[in-house]
Amino acid sequence: MPLPNKAYKEGCWIVFLCSVWYTSSSGQNVINKQLLGYFPYPVTISMVHMLAVALFLIPVLRIRKVEKLKIHDKRRFLILVLPLAFGKFFASISSHLSIASVSVSFAHTVKAMMPIFTVILSRFIVNERPSNKVYMALATIIVGVLIATVTELTFNYVGGAFALIATITFALQNVYTKKAIGDLYIHHLRLLLIIGQLASLMLFPIWVYVDLTRILNNKELIEKLNWPRTLLLLFTSGFLNFLQNIFAFSVLSLTSPLSYSIANASKRIVIITSSLLFLQNPVTPMNVFGMGTAILGVLAYNKAKYDDRCSKQTLPVYTSDADLVHMKSYRMRDEHVSNGHPNYNV
To answer: Which of 73, 121, 124, 161 has its CA 20 to 30 A from that of 235?
Structure first.
């Protein structure tokens, strides 16, 4: 029996959105790795990414006529949003420091461990007890990451440590969001813009002190670097990061929590595969097996969490992308808002 015309069109649209999402994310990672190979300034790349979200989202909000934010309790709002902004730029820097030292494929395999830290933090912060299925999925992730680590030909402790720090930061954002963000009644793109702008302000002095001063004092770099190519790559990386955020939110608004989680795990597979093809970093069959096992563990974790939530007649709030967790939480809450509160169509 053929699908209804509307459902077919929506399915094709989601496939298109996922394709652009995966392409922009993979392209960004490949470009960042190439940049860091001859332009070793990871904080600069993070600064560009924060500015891209902070600047490019402004016309998008105007085109979509997103309602301006009305803050009734500024102090409470900042208490909720500032940690998310800090986590956004700190995780970004950690991620770029990791891929500067290890392969993109290995860094993203380590990031597959995010559910492990999410479960640990949830247990202590919100007293959430996972099921046996969740523990089995976590064990699969651990085995996969261990195999990938032992067989990783480009492994070094610095890169591995920063990849782990980025993963823990994302997980902490995840749990903090689950605990604190439910009280914000705000359009998801407006919230992303605010986080991006605050993250840019926080990161700017760090960038000036850490990277800008080193660049200005490096006369050899200033004279010999191909600046047009470097600036073009920086701009492209920032724009792709912006696209990744926009299209990820679009997929999020059109799919179920489980579908989005699977799509996000699939994105990690595409990133790992594209990095192996374009960057041609050396891998072994066991290395690929470990990466695959870790990704399968993530898929199993998302399914186990979904089943747990369904059994409790509540909706899941975890996704593999910490920058999107609070947006999904907001959307789910907004769908059940009582009279007297705004209701955005995400």
So the answer is: 161
